[in-house]
Amino acid sequence: MLMFTRYAPFFVLVSAVLVIWMGFGSDWGEALAAEPERVQNIAYALLGVLSIGGTLAYAQWRGAITPFSKPLLWRMHWQQLNKLIPIAIITIMWLILAGGIIEVDWEFVANLPPEWVLTGAISIGAGFHSAILFSPDDDPTVELLLTMPYALSTLIFVRFVLLVSLYVLLGIISHSVLALINGAEINFVYGVLMWLPGTLLLASLGLFVTLVTRQIVFGVGLVILIWVAFWQYGTLIFVSAPYLYSIHLFLPELGTSGQALMIINRLTVLALAFFLLMWSVTLLTREEYIMTGRS
Questions:
Q1: Which of 143, 157, 164, 243 has the smallest number of Cβ neighbours within 10 A?
Q2: Is the pTM higher than 0.70?
Q3: Handedness of CA 279, 234, 261, 192 (dihedral sign)
Q4: What angle do the packed helices 152-182 and 71-79 form, to 10 degrees?
């Protein structure tokens, strides 16, 4: 079982890729619009992959879930979250939405609806914040926390849960305010589905890359690179490789097949987030490498 769970992330990744490839082939958009049953079957298959992946993730993380009854550990990590980062992200977002407080001439935010600004702000904030929280070389507090009677995986688990919870809470509050201001113009459930999977994926990416490289700059750089690529140039995907829409972080309008594509897209992005999280767990079993860089 231990050997199987060690390769669980690759099972999730390969299974998701096979489901997408076997389900769609080359006739991506037209088949979705004409065959809703096909979309439903693919969605069920992806849900099955996510369920199995979630079970395997629990098997890997079960040793880290014990500290839920240790409030001191949670309090110490909460104090290390550097909450100025999400405050700055949300402040910039609301200044952009305020229109008139500051002038926005940047192409990638001009004339965007409020929910799109929220989607971009929450996702890049979580990814950036995650990348700077898990570097042993740049965070001496990790060494201090290791003096407590907990495994390294427990410390990372607590900090990551607090990080994701903080951004989910900020996103829900911000989206609720947008919904109240705009009334029926914003669909709350659809809006949350826009930013939540991408937020989890970028946060998982920041965690994984920083654990591998042990330095903040690589995690931050890759998160920003991927965010900018999908935010600024994501529409080029539909010209050159439309089947790659399943891993698109954001959801542009796609006409009649948009809802079907959204279901597949969100499930696939979540599967990729699961893949990175479970792969991170396999790294945490090598505590000497994480802390010292020696294998």
A1: 143
A2: yes
A3: positive
A4: 70
